[in-house]
Amino acid sequence: MVLAIDIGNTHILLGCFEERSILFKELLTTDKTATDLEYAALIKSALEFNGASLDAVDGAIISSVVPQVTANVKRAVERFTDVTPLVVGPGVKTGLKIKIDNPAQLGSDLVVSAVAGIKEYGVPQINIYMGTATTFSLIDKDKNFIGTSIGAGMGIEAEALSSKTSQLPNIAFETPKKVIGTNTIDSMKSGLIYQNAALIDGMIDRIEEEYGGACVLTATGRYASLVVPLCRHKIILDTDMLLKGLIEVYYKNL
């Protein structure tokens, strides 16, 4: 069994694979103060809740955009299995041709998402990730990673609204019945959901215009399933894209 772990700014996505088949996945909270033992306990609990154990782990791969957490998660796996996790970064084989100014600056989450997107859905492609940040990555027809647009994610937007204003409360991430709300809660829900759908449609138009042609459109991330159905473009929703990319990179490096 192979552990695939993506460490994000807010959450850690944990997946377990047999070959290339996902057995299960869990979401953990990213805690920059947690020790390797605390992360080991979380991973152990996630496995046991799904009928697995650390003894069954014979491989592991980690992608991370939180360097201070990476080392502790890596040590957590090493302490309680016989495995040294592969950490996605410079020197790791991905098969992705990165054409940005400084390839070392590209987040490993964007790398593995692009790897999965290319394998599963083809090119040229706009690969959208909706998590702590909302990103649009362009992969051209020759499978070159051309670049990215990065903006604030929906969680940050919602937190900013409630913390920086006096009269706007915290709200649940739900789709309101109408675009124009008639009360504060529905109006805020519209702003988060429908405005982000319009943002995605508008960005797709601009990226395709700049690229000079239509692209395959894919989306992943914890907010994608809320927003993608409301977009006017046909976007492939794949909530397992990061995990699929991780396992693909793992097997490229055996």
Write the layout of secondary structure elements.
Layout: E1 2-7, E2 11-18, E3 21-29, H1 36-49, E4 59-64, H2 67-80, E5 86-87, E6 97-98, H3 108-121, E7 125-130, E8 133-139, E9 144-152, H4 154-164, H5 184-211, E10 216-220, H6 224-227, E11 236-237, H7 241-252
Parallel strand pairs: 1-4, 4-5, 6-9, 7-10, 10-11
Antiparallel strand pairs: 1-2, 2-3, 7-8, 8-9
Mind explaining what this structure looks like?
The chain folds into two domains: 2-87, ATPase, nucleotide binding domain (Nucleotidyltransferase, domain 5), CATH 3.30.420.40; 97-246, ATPase, nucleotide binding domain (Nucleotidyltransferase, domain 5). Helix content is 38%, strand content 24%. The protein contains seven helices and eleven strands. The chain has helices at 36-49, 67-80, 108-121, 154-164, 184-211, 224-227, 241-252; strands at residues 2-7, 11-18, 21-29, 59-64, 86-87, 97-98, 125-130, 133-139, 144-152, 216-220, 236-237. It is globular, with a radius of gyration of 19 Å.
Count of β-strands: 11
Strand/helix succession:
EEEHEHEEHEEEHHEHEH
- Would you identify the CATH architecture of the largest domain? 2-Layer Sandwich
Just give the CATH class of the largest domain. Alpha Beta
CATH superfamily of the largest domain: ATPase, nucleotide binding domain
Shape: globular
How much of the sequence lies in strands comes to: 15-25%
The helix content is 25-40%
Cα radius of gyration in angstroms: 19 Å
Largest sheet: 6 strands, mixed
Mean pLDDT, to the nearest integer, reads 94
Number of helices: 7
Please state how the strands of the largest beta sheet are arranged side by side.
6-9-8-7-10-11
Structure class: alpha/beta
Q: Report the uncertain regions.
A: none
